[in-house]
Specification:
Aminotrans_V_PyrdxlP_BS, alpha/beta, 12 strands, Aspartate Aminotransferase, domain 1, Aspartate Aminotransferase, domain 2, iron, 386 residues, binds pyridoxal-5'-phosphate
Length: 386
């Protein structure tokens, strides 16, 4: 049975070109980039190249790129740095639909005495910017918002919000983990102070992250140790993964057009096919303002986990809500914040595509999904009540 992988917002395959670039740095080229000898120094030169490629993807300067261990670390480092840089300010603004890497840290900071404004979204997943702007005050240390949502793909107007934050002298961080490689990101176009990326969402390895820190922004690292990354992140560099990240960013930049055209067309075809062939199905999120690869779709009166199990038997991989929350039977915090009706939220499946998917795969999904949903609905007391 062939696997059809449509769970790319959870993680992606390491691109063959990325792996090829990385492999020598596990074996023959294992030097420490900080060493005085050229054996290590040559690895340092390769890291410099990788840093440039990452910077190019987001139109930054290589000196503004800090390599970390994952997107979650980048988010934590940004938020904690903003607080350390503004010890007198005790307020953070974020949204109700952030990834746990931001949400859980903010909730724990709230317990420590910080004031957190969790800005709500409407039933399309759009941020209430009136509430957001009204919440900005002299005590606000940071606004931290995701660029695009991992579950619905809904894109937030981060550039506009960064401008407003800058006008008030408030630091602005964005979690661009899901936006990167799917839509253009240009930090030179808006006063974004910090921005997080994750390798494994863009065909680089897992355990690789990036934090962009705008030149001039005071950075306070929470990890104390050696002077790597310009004193902004201690620890001997994960050389192979950094080199892989460089290659992945180069590929991501060259695939942006394909994301906007071929991948978008596959997503739209899948969406239209499912809506046409399955009754009582609803797309979650603002249709015209989503990542081109993401489809979150709820099927009334069935359980997402049961759908996933039957899909799995036919070789199709997807998620119910967010990969991080599957395991719990409650609808995800994102769908609940959007007030998606309970019976549709419970039956929500997220398909997330990559450039490795094909239209034939979409046709296959469209062919098998109606049978899967019908089979489950035939057993569902909730469906019989319809
Ligand atoms: N932020 C968002 C929006 C994500 O989707 C994820 C991963 O799912 C992360 C942060 C965390 O990234 P990592 O898995 O590299 O820690």
């Amino acid at each position: 049975m062939k696997t059809i992988y449509t769970d790319n917002n959870a993680t992606t395959m390491v691109a063959p070109e990325v792996l090829e670039e990385m492999l020598p740095y596990f074996s023959e080229l294992y030097g420490n980039p900080s060493s005085m000898h050229s054996f290590g120094g040559n690895v340092g030169l390769k890291l410099k190249e990788a840093r440039q490629k990452v910077a190019d993807l987001i139109h930054a300067d290589p000196g503004e790129i800090v390599f970390t261990s994952c997107g979650s670390e980048s988010d934590n480092a940004a938020i904690l740095s903003a607080l350390a840089a503004n010890p007198d300010k005790k307020h953070i603004i974020t949204s109700v639909v952030e990834h746990p890497a931001v949400k859980n840290l903010c909730q724990s900071l709230e317990k420590e005495g910080y004031r957190i404004t969790f800005v709500p979204v409407d039933n399309m997943g759009r941020l209430d910017t009136d509430i957001l702007y009204a919440a900005m005050d002299n005590d606000t240390a940071l606004v931290t918002l995701m660029w695009a949502n991992n579950e619905t793909g809904v894109i937030f107007p981060v550039e506009e919000i960064a401008e407003k934050a800058a006008e008030k002298g408030i630091l602005f961080h964005t979690d661009a983990v899901q936006a990167a490689g799917k839509i253009p990101i240009d930090v030179s176009q808006a006063p974004i102070d910090m921005l997080s990326l994750s390798g494994h969402k863009i065909h680089a390895p897992k355990g690789m992250g990036v934090l962009y820190v705008k030149k001039g922004v005071k950075f306070h690292p929470f990890l104390k140790g050696g002077h790597q990354e310009g004193g902004r992140r201690a620890g001997t560099e994960n050389t192979a993964s950094i080199i892989g990240m460089g290659k992945a960013c180069e590929l991501a930049g060259s695939h942006l057009k394909e994301m906007d055209t071929r991948v978008r067309a596959m997503r739209d075809h899948l969406e239209a096919g499912l809506l046409e062939n399955i009754p009582a199905a609803t797309v979650n999120g603002e249709k015209d303002n989503r990542l081109p690869n993401t489809l979150s779709i709820g099927f009334d009166a069935v359980e997402g986990e049961s759908i996933l199990l039957l899909m799995d038997q036919t070789g199709i991989c997807a998620s119910s809500g967010s990969a991080c929350t599957s395991g719990s039977l409650d609808p995800s915090h994102v769908l609940m914040a959007m007030k998606v009706p309970f019976e549709s939220a419970h039956g929500t499946i997220r398909f997330s595509l990559s450039t490795y998917n094909t239209m034939e795969e979409m046709d296959h999904i469209i062919e098998v999904m109606p049978g899967i949903i019908q089979r489950l609905r035939d057993m569902s007391p909730f469906w019989k009540k319809h």
